[in-house]
Design goal:
Length: 124
């Protein structure tokens, strides 16, 4: 099962952590894994390239665990309100897209949210 936990500070989404494997099908044929992987990279690229916001991400090549932290979603790190809204909106949109996938793939995917101070997440 892929577990994705979205990180929030004062209700604002600023990142997520992904762990596990879907187990829907054999490696190379797992559509759940492929969808999550593609969406994860899309989110990183939109924030980093299209919105020009710094994204700190770690992808463990052995476990495929992913951690994405975007301080530009938070007011104490980004003064441009529109940019903050866009960054957190992309992250929130990813949360809702994954939540929609739960309807059909609840056995292979778990999505939740955690209120966690940014400083704690950045250094863990």
């Amino acid at each position: 099962m892929i577990r994705i936990r979205f990180l929030k500070s004062d209700g604002i989404c600023y990142g997520f952590e992904e762990t596990g494997h879907a187990g829907f099908a054999e490696e190379g044929n797992d559509i759940v894994c492929a969808a999550v992987s593609a969406m994860t990279m899309l989110v990183i690229n939109i924030i980093e390239v299209a919105l020009a916001s710094d994204v700190k991400y770690i992808i463990d090549d052995e476990t495929t665990d992913v951690k994405v932290i975007v301080k530009g979603a938070l007011p104490q790190y980004e003064s441009d309100e529109k940019k903050r809204f866009a960054v957190s909106g992309v992250l929130t949109g990813y949360f809702f897209q994954l939540s929609d996938m739960l309807e059909d793939y609840y056995e292979f995917l778990d999505v939740d949210e955690e209120e966690r101070p940014f400083e704690t997440a950045e250094h863990s």
